[in-house]
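re the bet — no i am not wrong, look at it urself. input seq straight from the record:
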Amino acid sequence: MSETTAPTRRILIVDDHPIMRFGLARLIEAEADLQVPWEAGTAREALSHIEREKPDLVLVDMALPDRNGLELIKDIRAAFDGVQCIAISMHDEELYAERVLRAGGRGYVMKEEAPGKLIQAIRRVLDGGVFLSPKMEARIVEIFAGGEKSSSPVERLSDRELEVFRLLGEGNGSREIAGKLGISVRTIDAHRAHIKEKLGLRDATDLMHQAVRWVETGEIG
C-alpha cells in the first residue's frame, strides 16, 4: 500500500529586498511540500500575482515601497477568499501583531527569529491556525478581553498614521509620502498634526526627531 503524498502548497513572498526574498525562498523550498513559484517586490506586483495564480499563502513584509503591509493584507483578504497572509517584519511584534490580526492576517514573524519559526508559522496557518509567539498570544488575549492598555504611545496611532510616521522616520517629506501613499499633501499634513497630538510632540522638528528615533530603535521619548 503506497503512502499518501502531502499536497504541495504554493507561497508568494512579498519583500522589496531581493536578498531577503532569495533567503526566504531557499528556506521554504527545503521543505518537500512547500514551493515558492513567485516573488514580488511591491504590493502592486503581489496583487497581480495573486489575481493570476491564487497562492495558498502570502508572506508580506510590513514595509513595502508602494504600500503599507497592513493595507496589502486588507486588500488580499477582501478580494481573494482563501488566500492566507503572514506578516514578516523587523519591527517588534508588540506594535504590529494586533494590527495584523485585525487586518485579516493569520500570523506574525519577526525577521530576527530562528528559521524554524517561519516554517512553523507557515504550517500552522496553512492548517487553519494562527501563529504568534507565546508571549504575544497571551497579550492578545488580554487586549481583546480589555485587560491590558497600550504600552507604547505609538500604539495610539491609526494604521495610516503609523505608516506616515515610519516614512517620516526614513527621511521622506510630506510630498514624497503623499506620492508613495497615493494621497494628497494636505492629507499627509493632517496626519502629521494628528500624530503630534497623539504623541504629545511640540513641533515638526520634534516629530521628525522622534520618527527617526523610532525607525532606528523602535522607541520614542
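see?? Residues 9-144 form a domain with the Rossmann fold fold (CATH 3.40.50.2300). told u. also The mean pLDDT is 89. so pay up
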